[in-house]
Amino acid sequence: MSLIPILELMSDARRGGLGLVALNVILLEHAEAIVEAAEDCGLPTVLQVSENTIKYHQGRIRPIGSACVAIAASASVPVAVHLDHATSPALWQSAYEVGFG
Predict the structure, then answer these.
(1) How far apart are alpha carbons 63 and 70 in whole angstroms?
(2) What is the Cβ-side half-sphere exposure of residue 69, based on CA atoms within 13 angstroms?
(3) C-alpha torsion 60→61→62→63, nearest 10
(4) pLDDT of the chain along its 101 residues, tens only?
(5) Is 12 a catalytic residue?
(6) Which phi and psi (to 5°) does residue 66 adopt?
(7) Rg, the chain, Cα only
(8) Whole-angstrom Cα distance, residue 99 to residue 73?
(9) What are phi and psi of 93, to 5 degrees?
(10) Among residues 12, 32, 39, 84, which one is catalytic?
(11) SS3 of 24, please?
(12) Is 6 left (phi over 0), alpha (psi -120 to 50) or beta?
């Protein structure tokens, strides 16, 4: 499967009458555990990286964002990576450049 746009996951869930879990990532280990659990269950998921998470990482999106994108891309189930609760257009652009949907 791998990295999928969030709108595609949401549309698939709606068509199937299912929910879609979206969980916040703060550390690399969170992303790994979330995707491992999604794979164990055979279900799609969304990795959310918030503006607060970026602040926690000294304002740098590339390290944690790139890791999330790489984890999603190698997953055996569909995984989207989403920038959650961000208000900065510069951060939106940086997330897009890193590979967020």
Answers:
(1) 11
(2) 15
(3) 80
(4) 578 999 999 999 999 999 999 999 999 999 999 999 999 999 999 999 999 999 999 999 999 999 999 999 999 999 999 999 999 999 999 999 999 98
(5) no
(6) -65, -40
(7) 13
(8) 10
(9) -65, -45
(10) 84
(11) strand
(12) alpha
Q: Which residues share a beta bridge with 46? A: 22, 80
CA 29/CA 37 separation, integer angstroms? 12
Q: Which residue has the tokens 């794979």?
A: 39
- Side chain identity at residue 62, one-letter code: R
C-beta of residue 10 within 8 angstroms of C-beta of residue 101? no
Enter the tokens of residue 54.
């970026």
Residue type, 90: A
Number of H helices, E strands in the chain: 5, 4
User: pTM for the full model?
Assistant: 0.93
